[in-house]
Amino acid sequence: MSDHKETFWDRLEDINAGMLGLNATARFLPMSHYADDDTNTLWFITAKGTDLVKALQSGPQDGTYIVSSEKKGLYARIAGRLSLSDDKEQLDELWNTVASSWFEDGPQDPDVQLVRMDLTDAEVWATEGSLSFLYEIAKSKVTGSKPDMGDHFSLTF
């Protein structure tokens, strides 16, 4: 795995949520993701009655997932193909206390829907966090140089 991909996956695993939406609409919703770097996939647990699930019932669609974490030093626009999944084993593997807060009957709850995002590409900004940002701004004022705001790169999956 390239250094950039490793940075991306390592930091993404430490972030709990982002904003997910279909490219065909301008509506993005907060969602918790579950990352699988072996398959370049993100998983989401949601309810069957959501607009996202209703839209995906007609078939897979292109989507975007946005994450932003100053603490983890990752800002990314992640693109991929969203689809509904009925993979019970995957759902059982992902199930946790956060998901159980939304669905009273656990993974067997009839309203639970698993959404899969097969990643295609991402634009990523990896920074060293807020202290580094302040240092770089101060240094630029003293030296007259541009601040080093970290790495900016694109990934293809």
UniProtKB/TrEMBL annotation:
SUPFAM superfamilies assigned to the protein according to its UniProt record, in alphabetical order: FMN-binding split barrel (SSF50475)
Coiled-coil boundaries: none
General stress protein FMN-binding split barrel domain boundaries: 3-148
Domain of life: Bacteria
Designated name of the protein: Pyridoxamine 5'-phosphate oxidase family protein
Species whose genome carries this gene: Paracoccus amoyensis
